[in-house]
């Protein structure tokens, strides 16, 4: 089969690799019908995620068709259309039993496209398939559902739930990339009083307004003053960090009101200062987290009910074989305006579960 292979810092290629095969009785082999790229993939290519070895097939978000299952898999069968979660779950360890799948100690967690071959391929082996894939309700488009593999559960769990957004709250989302935009969408499920988005890029801020931000501020235009002005100088009830750099994290902790919540979503590569000399007296709650994807079944039901607007987020569509071009477009978002790029082909309209070569 063909797959997108990480070849070392700065290099990826869409190339021939061996077809995946069932290795463990809990595995499923899934044919990839819709797949997206993530900012994390760009970090891997830049060399920021050293655990990813050259030769690794990247990708941790996809929707596909189950082709084959190991003998222990009960929840899905060949022919089923499934969402592949960015987080795999052994189901047995202490953390999985608390639905904290992101912290799985039994071989799951974020493994796809990281520690094992991932979804940017024609086929993928998914471990612990019973808990790591989700049947997609009929009527839900694969190119919508694929947004629930990572960005929606991340924004919802690590941003909205950790930030405990409540009706009437003033919510600030710093960073209006795919995650920040999904945080705006899912924060609205709780009827906040006002959502303020902050970004450097005007096209991202206009996407934020289309998705329901009430006010936006360019990072250079004194967003802290805007938040102060809109809250009688008090600060926001909830501030979400969806960038991952020290300046934005520190800004979030200055924007929160006494008794408010700062939910960090961003992946940080550098130390950020925690100004306890200012914060100790403010009763502030600060949360961090890796997504668990425990909310994915609920988000799929909301999507099936038409209650989760997602269409705005996929700005570019490609055939699977155009993977390298998709990386170029996604990697130059400031120039191309890309938010999410999705790949998949009309070649996969019929469900054909005859074993693919090498998977049986
Ligand atoms: N915690 C988790 O489980 C988890 C999961 C997935 C992704 N993430 C992280 O969430 C973060 C957001 O992901 P994304 O895919 O939306 O990333 P992205 O890079 O596409 O978006 C980040 C946005 O922040 C903006 N930005 C950059 N510097 C800024 C600044 N100084 N002030 C204001 N805005 C600024 C950019 O213009 C961009 O729109 C990343 O750090 C990503 O690694 C976390
Ligand atoms: Zn991701
Ligand atoms: Zn586990």
Question: How would you summarize the topology of this molecule?
Answer:
Blueprint (H helix, E strand, L loop, with lengths): L1 E5 L5 E5 L11 E9 L2 H8 L15 E8 L11 E4 L9 H4 L25 E4 L2 H4 E3 L6 H4 L5 H11 L8 E5 L3 H10 L6 E6 L2 H9 L4 E4 L4 H8 L5 E6 L4 H10 E9 L11 H4 L5 E3 L8 H9 L9 E5 L4 H9 L1 H4 L3 E4 L17
Parallel strand pairs: 8-9, 8-11, 9-10, 11-12, 12-13, 14-15
Antiparallel strand pairs: 1-2, 3-4, 3-6, 3-15, 4-5, 5-7
Helix pairs in contact: 5-6
What's the structural domain tally? 2
**What is the number of E strands?**
15
User: What is the beta-strand fraction?
Assistant: 15-25%
CATH superfamily of the largest domain: Medium-chain alcohol dehydrogenases, catalytic domain
Report the total helices.
Answer: 13
- Inertia-based shape: globular
- Hetero groups: nicotinamide-adenine-dinucleotide, zinc ion
Q: In CATH terms, what is the architecture of the largest domain?
A: Alpha-Beta Complex
Instruction: Provide the CATH topology of the largest domain.
Output: Quinone Oxidoreductase, Chain A, domain 1
* Termini gap: 14 Å
> What is the C-level CATH assignment of the largest domain?
Alpha Beta
Sheet with the most strands, sense and barrel status: 7 strands, mixed
- Arithmetic mean of pLDDT: 94
Order of helices and strands: EEEHEEHEHEHHEHEHEHEHEHEHEHHE
Could you tell me the radius of gyration in angstroms?
Answer: 20 Å
Tell me the quaternary state. Answer: single chain
- Return the structural class: alpha/beta
Helix content class: 25-40%
Low-confidence stretches: 347-360
